[in-house]
Design a protein that fits this description.
Blueprint (H helix, E strand, L loop, with lengths): L7 H10 L9 E4 L4 E4 L12 E4 L2 H6 L3 E2 L14 H12 L7 H6 L4 H12 L3 H17 L4 H7 L5 H12 L12 E6 L6 E5 L4 E6 L5 H11 L4 E3 L3 H14 L16 H10 L8 E2 H7 L6 H9 L12 E2 L12 H17 L3
Parallel strand pairs: 2-4, 5-8, 9-10
Antiparallel strand pairs: 1-2, 1-3, 5-6, 6-7
Length: about 350
Amino acid sequence: MLMTLPDDDTLYEALLARDAAYDGTAFVGVSSTGIFCRLTCPARKPKRENCNFYSNVSDCIHAGFRPCKRCHPVAPAAQNDPAITALLAALDSDPARRWFEADIIRMGYDPSTIRRSFKRHFGMTFLDMARQRRLANGFTALETGKVIDAQLEAGFDSPAAFRTAFAKLLGTPPNSFKTDAMLRAAHIPTPLGDMIAVCDKRALHLLEFADRKALPTELARLRKLTKGDIGLGRFDTTDQVETELAAFFAGESATFAVPLVLHGTPFTRQVWNALRQIPAGETRSYGALAQKIHAPTASRAVARANGANQIALIIPCHRVIGADGSLTGYGGGLWRKQRLIDLEKTYAQRNLK
């Protein structure tokens, strides 16, 4: 059963008691401060009349509240959810497994509750995540093998099902990719999820999380620019991207030296270059970014350019937040944005670049 929140008076009592039973399923927006928190937040408790309760982070943000810096309500509470932890561990131990709701039930969990929890924290269900993990295995196999081998590696019994799933991920079926192309797409696993990198021999053209909804559109745009000259596989550039991403997530370096090709208008490229000048561990508002490029009235255009970025992390659009301190949108998901900001705080604390 999906969890239905009790009345506000009960939630206020839970807030006063710091009741962990509602962690991740209920949040409080405090009108006197403009901040929203977990009910377990250690901060001084607000007055009842200043409290508004919400069932998810998205509603808090849409209501105009910004996340608390003490309890980090946008950070994935999944880390504290034993059911999610157990399912993620099971997925990591056997990424090629085909999961069904019956498997979740056998592990002792209610599928509806699991579905809601994963959607809240990751923007996708556990079954979607498992399917994507299998597809990532097939993607890697496609880089060096045949479609049928990739299909089997991904655990798809049906060639049609594999082609459909692959086309949903990348916007085109696997047999449409050239074998000796100027640009090549490769799968790169990271602690925040699978990423797709598109490189040529000298530079990186695209780097996106595989579950970003805009990925098929971005790849279609690249195919149009290159007249379909995109294949699967790797260049030395791809290996450089993967090595630099590994160092970034390990907390060793926030510097990316791989050359980039920026597919955008002169204005969007100007915004993207300004993004790269924001030090790791710092954030900027859209207005501040507009001031930086000497276009103080162009905050909305800056926001659009920020959203059009197709080289995630390396062009750090995650470092742009609302003027009120709210996270605002992020194509890779707000939970990833919070994780990236938290990770980069360690760079700032150690004065690393």
